[in-house]
Amino acid sequence: MEGKLILRDIQKIYQKGSVSVEALKGINLLIEKGEFLSIMGPSGSGKTTLLNIIGCLDVPTKGEVIYDGVALKNLKEDELSEYRKKNIGFIFQSYNLIPVLTVKENIELPLVVEKKLSPSEREKRVMELIEAVGLKGMENRYPRELSGGQEQRVAIARALVKKPILVLADEPTANLDSVTAEEIIEIMKQMNEIEKTTFIFSTHDPRVEKHAKRLIILKDGQIASDEGR
Amino acid sequence: MLLKMAIRNVARHKRRTFLTVITMAVGLMFFIFFDSLFVGIDRMVVEGLVRYSDSSIIIYSKEYDENKKAYPLKKGIKDVDRIFKLAQSFKDVEGVATRTQFLGELVYYGKSKYIIGTVINPELDERVFEIKDSIKEGKYFSDGENEVIIGIDLARELGITVGESITIIAQTKYETHNALDFVVSGLISTTIPSINEASVILTYKGAEKLLDLEGSITSIHIKVKWPKGESIPAYTKRVANIASSLQKDLPEYKVYNFMDIYGEFLLLMQQKKATTFIITFLILLIAAVGIVNTILMAVYERIKEIGVLLAMGFKPKEIRKLFLLEGMVIGVIGGLFGVLLGLLLDLWVVNTGINFAKMYSGIKASEIGMPVWGVIYGEWNFGAFILSFCFGLITALISAYIPARYASKLKVTECLRFV
């Protein structure tokens, strides 16, 4: 039961002046814990909107998101942010590391915000992840001293450091060359296996798609296909 | 971690931070410097009053006091001996002197100028006032018979040099006009512009013929010891105690302490201080706009970063705190820098001073409204350092609050749209 995610009839309408755009048109999904799931689709198909709603960054116009039996629409903004802090990690297309923090500090930041672990426990967890993503020896470097692939490894470690139930990755390989992209997906896969974390990533990169254990294709805000592998 | 981020973010844009910090520092330096100068001027005014014109305590007869501005020679002090004895009974009293002042006109080769004459007893006066030490050219009185000492600016204005004869026209005690020639034996230069510009000092011996004084003394001046380093408030307190005790014993006289007289200058100085405050405020306002701009630019530049932090679970108030901390870091650096610059400027103005007389040569102090003249020294005022640092910090925090609040109101999805 833990880590189960249900999306029920999700609809999202954006109001742009007098024009309303329906980004998602009634999405129904059941995602089990530990899935390695890819959402594909052309630009404007609603991938990012769907990820934002799953990630509690945005609320649906209609329908509901249920995590472990808790309906998120009943949560207030602060509670939602608290929920996000505890349960969800994010990986972005352009890595978005904090430029003034070192590799180690970037990974540690979510734990500092959470204030749950002692400094020595934090150190242990951070070093564990640095090793797991293959960045040992680079912990004191700043993002500007890293390659794109290395930055994304840091972002993965940062997303995983709190041991979230779910990691959302929006086009995680879009800015990387093929070899690096493969490496990154491989690391995400390993983490999915080691930490038993659910990974949901959006992509329109066919090199990446083949690694997914489940593939959902979105088209015009609707699920065009949903297949397990 | 937040503080670390704030410090590194501020350090990241060195040029922008530098410009903001320097504007702020200049404003604070300005404040510290002028505060030092004004406190210094305050002290010089007080010291000048005590040293040259009024001494620590002045006693007039009540009738004279009521009509002081007309210098009524008839309303002199009757119980001079009794007052002398009374004053000398205080162990802190260093000296007691008699003086008589009158209004007159100095005439020199067709040129003339209104003057304030001061009649002194050189022997007694030396124990109370520092006229003798302030003779710039010539010498102090020798026999005093027909000698005068005049203010250096008065001499310059009329072209009088030491040893020359001048004529003084004045009203006698019986209100008839009289004129008498005197020889200028010395020129006096003090920190008090009115003495330098309009003062003629003569002895009772010389004044007797000019004013028909018949020994009339219009004021008694008491000098209370002022050890070096004693603050003005501490000295004022001691002097005021003696003055009020004397007043009790002399109900028929009016006893003033130097602070009663200083009150007139105070108003003028307060106006100048208010001007400094306004200028400092304006400079800090420029710095504040700089800080608002710096932090707002930081918010726009790092909108993605804000999105990431929000996604990570940062609360809006933590985002606000992050930018406020950046404002605080700028405030602390600007404040420290301002205090340092102020300290350096104070070191100079306290030790070397500013020679106003040289800087404005050819101009009289009264023309530019200066209450003191010559080399003006600043005074250390550590309160001003603390005040300016706090002032800078508060300005920075208030300025940072506007963009910080804006940053904290951003929606996470809006920020991530920039991703």
Short description:
The complex is a heterodimer of chains A (229) and B (419). Chain A has helices spanning 47-54, 77-87, 103-114, 119-132, 148-160, 178-195, 206-209; strands at residues 5-16, 19-31, 36-40, 62-67, 70-71, 88-91, 166-170, 198-203, 214-219, 222-228.
| Share of helix of chain A, binned | 25-40%
Name the largest protein-protein interface in this structure: A-B, 27 and 22 residues
- Number of discrete helical segments of chain B: 15
**Secondary structural class of chain A:** alpha/beta
Biggest sheet strand order of chain B reads 2-3-8-5-7-6
Main sheet summary of chain B: 6 strands, mixed, barrel
Low-pLDDT residue intervals, each spanning 5 or more residues of chain A:
none
Largest sheet of chain A: 6 strands, mixed
| N-to-C order of helices and strands of chain B | HHEHHEEHEEHEEHEHEHEHHHEHEHH
Query: Nearest-angstrom radius of gyration of chain B?
Result: 30 Å
- Terminal CA distance of chain B reads 23 Å
Q: Could you tell me how far the N terminus lies from the C terminus of chain A, measured between alpha carbons in angstroms? A: 22 Å
- Summarize model confidence as the mean pLDDT of chain A: 86
Q: If you average the pLDDT of chain B, what whole number results?
A: 88
